[in-house]
């Protein structure tokens, strides 16, 4: 189901709790909502649709990648400044991002994965994990 995008900074600034199998329905809502915003959105966290669980979805080259309970294990490469926008607010803000990140997460079946991401994909994941941690850009 396509959900409204939350713009309430109080809700968005709350750290999200770990997701469980009982929260699997959130994955479909996130996928439906990000697809509805495909022209302007490449990543979405569950709290953006009002669910304070650690679930994110990003557009990963040709498909949507679901990450449940993502954690950045390691950062490497240079740190750079960039401008980012978000559906939760208007305009863009400057942020610092790591060029390369190693992330542990569960897939939609709650199978643990570890993968390294670089470039724009790493940037999107960092943005969405910030959402999970209650960090607003």
Automatic annotation (TrEMBL):
It comes from the Bacteria. One of its GO terms (molecular function) is peptide deformylase activity. CDD domains: Pep_deformylase (cd00487). The keyword Calcium does not apply. Keywords: Hydrolase. The keyword Hydrolase applies. Its EC number is 3.5.1.88. InterPro entries: Peptide_deformylase, Peptide_deformylase_sf. Belongs to the polypeptide deformylase family. PANTHER family: PEPTIDE DEFORMYLASE. This is Peptide deformylase.
């Amino acid at each position: 189901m396509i959900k409204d995008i939350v713009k309430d900074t109080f809700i968005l600034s709350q750290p999200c709790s770990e997701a469980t199998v009982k929260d699997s329905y959130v994955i479909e809502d996130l996928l439906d909502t990000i697809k509805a915003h495909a022209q302007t959105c490449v990543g979405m966290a569950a709290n953006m649709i009002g669910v304070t669980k650690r679930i994110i979805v990003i557009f990963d080259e040709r498909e949507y990648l679901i990450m449940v309970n993502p954690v950045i294990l390691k950062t490497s490469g240079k740190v750079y400044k960039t401008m980012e926008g978000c559906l939760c607010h208007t305009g863009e803000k400057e942020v610092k991002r790591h060029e390369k990140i190693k992330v542990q997460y569960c897939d939609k079946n709650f199978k643990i994965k570890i993968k390294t991401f670089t470039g724009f994909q790493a940037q999107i994941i960092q943005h969405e994990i910030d959402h999970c941690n209650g960090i607003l850009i």
